[in-house]
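Researcher: I'm comparing several assemblies side by side, and this is the next one on my list. It has 608 residues spread over two chains. Same procedure as the others: predict the full complex and return the structure.
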Amino acid sequence: MEQEFLHWLRQESNDNTDEVIVGIGDDGAVLKSSNRDLVIVTDTIAEGTHFVLPANLAERRCMLPSIGRKSLAVNLSDIAAMGAEPHAATLNFQCPRTFDLQTVRRLYKGCTNIAKQFGVKIVGGDTNTWDGPLVVSATVIGSRANGQSGWLLTDAVPGDAILVSGEFGGSIHGRHLTFDPRLKLAQHLVSNFRVHAATDASDSLTADLMAIATSSNVQMELNLAAIPISKDVEETESQKRIAAACQDGEDFELIFTVNEAIATKILADATLPTPVTRIGTVIAGPPQLVTIKGKLIPVIGYQH
Amino acid sequence: MEQEFLHWLRQESNDNTDEVIVGIGDDGAVLKSSNRDLVIVTDTIAEGTHFVLPANLAERRCMLPSIGRKSLAVNLSDIAAMGAEPHAATLNFQCPRTFDLQTVRRLYKGCTNIAKQFGVKIVGGDTNTWDGPLVVSATVIGSRANGQSGWLLTDAVPGDAILVSGEFGGSIHGRHLTFDPRLKLAQHLVSNFRVHAATDASDSLTADLMAIATSSNVQMELNLAAIPISKDVEETESQKRIAAACQDGEDFELIFTVNEAIATKILADATLPTPVTRIGTVIAGPPQLVTIKGKLIPVIGYQH
């Protein structure tokens, strides 16, 4: 449903103006501004969809800072995937009526901790209690250099190397709450290398690669054996381990494409703040994922 | 609870830097920017709290554009109350699983219509379905002149006239969904007059006047007979009509203070895009609302 809806949204939207450099459909929006362009990202996490709160009150309290942290972290991951730096955030909490002030504070504490870690100012928000489950919406405002090229879903070209940061799979065992958004790596790349397409792996490695393939109208040839698999993947059989890395969601690693010469330089760069691995090559062809033997790779991941 | 929480938030927050001109606690945040300062506002409306969806499917469909419209309108009202112009918006929908694509489109259509009306670009968002009720979070990015003075809750001074736009009371009968945010009036005031404190009447006339009184540490002397009462107020008895105007929420009119000389000019201005009425005077004293005879006026309105 999301793709169809996004397509309709783009037609319906009024963002086709000089002021809006990037509108609906990428990891974030880019607005023209006099000094640096503005980058705006927004994401909601909801109880039952993006996290489960334990029924036990003490366990629930214990988990709330992680939920607050995640609400900002997913947005900071989008900022990284736009090749931008974050500045300010707003937070909207819809809290169950059972939450007292102490409980809301624990939630908020998780937000302020990660905000401080990444130099983001929390500048506003809205806190309500209601009869429903916990919902946290966060919006982050960042910036990138005027007219910065690349970093969009649409920017992959045949011949590009496909690179990823970190490792994939099994984030459900805890990493989906504790991951560090790849802001440092993104800034390192912006400063030193020309990046073509970029996104972050939120839905799954295959789903987010497919988003680049579709938006750029290219094919992705993947060397499945090269995909870095997280120690969080509990499977032992090789095929199942690769499937977990390809299909599990919420890794929040960077996925990006660069030309061959740049790829060689990046892979030789000893100062990268996060390890980067090459997992394939962008080739001409209808938007799909294939193995190096040309076999179709199923796209499986979180469906909105 | 909100005041206590906001107090804690302000201590906890890290927004005390040169970059953040106005942080948590006002209608919006102001960030320093090279050309015009950025203004960021955010607000969530939730089923059961801010609106009720009819159980009947046809009636529900019919109402959805109004809900979408309101989600942006409440934020545009905050932009007006900051003396700012809106530019871009992001929208986050948490939709009940019963919503099909057609239903989500109706909701969104209400957003795009008001966005076009006020020249706002919808640049991003997030749409999820879940088992809970409908929640819409919107964030609007606007701007105001570098270093623009006034328009904050803290800017009222003794001797100021208290002015309001439009009429108050009975918005629950429909106006809470159809109101026009006072952006034109705000821009007219910014261009022509020096405004001290300003806010919009969302919780109630008395609750939002009290917010200015508390933040500015002043007393508000109100001429109750001067308060413009909406035709939507169904009470017939004079006292009850005034009470409705003072205590009903969601009027989304501007409440602002200016010095006496400016007040005279504004009230004589035949080009005001919305009628403005003087309802009282800011005086020295502990933060409370009093009648012209010095009697305490109860502060009643929506409690977060």
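Model: For your comparison table: The longest strand of chain B covers residues 85-96.
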